[in-house]
Amino acid sequence: MTTGQSGHDHSLAIRQEIQRFESVHPSIYAIYDLIDLVPDAHIAKQIREHVVAIEDSFVNSHEWTLARDVPELHLGIIGSSDSGKSALVHRYLTGSFMHEESPEGGRFKKEVFINDQSYLLLIRDEGGVPEAQFSAWIDALLLVFSLENEESFSVVCGFYNRMCSFRNMSEVPKILVGVQDSINDSNPRVIKDVKPRKLACDLRCPYYETCAIYGLNVERVFQDVCQKIIQQNTSTRHFPCDVSQHSTESDIKFPVPVITKTVHLHNKEVESTNSLKANTSEKDEDCRSIHNSSVPNDSGLLNDNFHNMQNQHGELRTSILTPTTIRKFRRKSNIFTPSKKEKYMGEMGVGREIPVKQGYLFKRSSKSLKEWKKKYVTLLEDGRLTYHSSLHDYMNDTNGKEILLQYVTVKVPGKTPKGSKSYSAQEDSFEFSIISLENKTWHFEANNAEDRDSWISAIEQQILSSLQNSDGDKKNETDAFKMHCIKNKVSGNDACVDCGASNPDWASLNLGVLMCIECSGIHRNLGSHISKVRSLDLDDWSAGHLSVMLALGNNIANSVWEYCLNGKQKPVSDSSREEKEQWIRWKYEDKLFLPPINPNVPLGKLLIDSVCRPHFTSVYA
């Protein structure tokens, strides 16, 4: 592309932006004229106030108000409408789960802190097929798919290939995200771990699996991608995108085949565009040879797999970035570029952070045998301690467990209070323990006293950093939002679980229900072993208790506790206290209305199955 052509494209984009900006106020003035026609003066006044607020927000958008030195991070998110990306973004922004997908996508802003520096994060959840403008706008990209939907995986690969025709995507930081939200009895996991990890390896990007219901890895994904943008900005200078150059490189690495399959987005059918044909002119051959000499050759890997996919699907020629069951995952193979790719995978793993401290420690099993087993332990800057069975598992990010250090303490068995040098335990044990607020304990043992003290010092430093970096205001805001959801969004929580009185403001922690103040007094009389009563407004709530209340609710609880009333009449809000107390004791103390237990299934197996699925009603029962 010549300089004149590039300038022409910029001029076109500038004119379009001016046209967009100038079109807003005529529409707003037209709304004002329509408001004058509203006969109800009170409603007209309210509508006018809302329109004025919208106009003020538009006029004072960040392009007119923020200082020029305020750093911005542009994050794009692509995926099908059923990929779970809407819930992922909603969980990150609010701390709560939203089941409904937003097919039109969305635009969001959030302040993030990276290395004590504030950044304005602009999140663009693309609702449909990504276009050139979106591809040029992003600083980084999240590729999101659902682990229970094979089509969503194919769609995100097709979207990415389309973006490669607009821009050289190898320069853009990326993270592949597999969403677990929809996995249940009727929707089992269909995409195994091997396929997305293979794609992440091909794209040279980290891979995370997230769950917006419980918040698994959600914060980590966005924190990681923001870090990558900042690292990219500090290591390279940003120049305007040369579409011609980028298209040439992306055609070489990521050719986009014809896709005849129709993808349903925005409640309409959108067909993927035809692939760009590779130009076989002498000029392109020269560019190809130059590119191949400077960039590791991945085209052979992708083209080799493309023929396998054609044989498998026949009429459907899917993207060459879409792995299939025919394409076997080979951990060590000569189909990879040996030196650079093995180095990348071997040293860093998939989505690997550089630990503050790492090495082997012995960990005591929590099982009855209390065996000591060797673990590969890593301490990370974000306040997590992870342990794996071996270095190999750590490198492949499999079979690992983690401990969040923000709410734990470290103890040495037999150590006297601070200031004393003596130990009552034998000095040759070299043990230390990590104890959480829930009184859960992890026992570790080092090879010598020096190594143990080094680990303790590093862990204590990360505990301190986690506490210092915790944002109390954000936590309070998030907790307040969760409390609002408990009252207004959880099914059945608009009325007392026992008498139906409206707007209950008391809760039972272990039952996961809301109740009125009169019924809460009766619950207290039952004893805390049956019902632990707390006020929604007056008491402090831990994150775990909030999660229980969000997951259950009055309708789920009553589907178990009031499964079969056996002709008994449930009290109402106007019933006497004696009637309510009799009902509550029947219900929770005598357990008269519970569903029968299936005698053919052992109770332990039923509980395990219910937890693993997960199925809240079965677990509750």
Question: How is this structure best described in words?
Answer:
Helix 2 runs antiparallel to helix 3 and helix 17 (517-526) packs across helix 20. The chain is of the alpha+beta class and 621 residues long. It starts with a helix and ends with a helix. The chain has four domains: 8-65; 71-233, 3-Layer(aba) Sandwich (Rossmann fold); 358-416 and 429-469, Pleckstrin-homology domain (PH domain)/Phosphotyrosine-binding domain (PTB) (PH-domain like); 473-619, Orthogonal Bundle (Annexin V, domain 1). It is globular. The strands form four sheets. A seven-stranded antiparallel beta sheet has the order 12-11-10-9-15-14-13. It has a six-stranded mixed beta sheet with strand order 2-3-1-4-5-6, with helices on both faces. Helices cover 42% and strands 16% of the residues. Strand 10 and strand 11 form a beta hairpin. This is Centaurin-gamma-1A isoform X3. It holds the Pfam family PH. Keywords: ANK repeat, GTP-binding, GTPase activation, Metal-binding, Nucleotide-binding, Zinc, Zinc-finger. It comes from Dinoponera quadriceps. Residues 461-601 form the Arf-GAP domain.
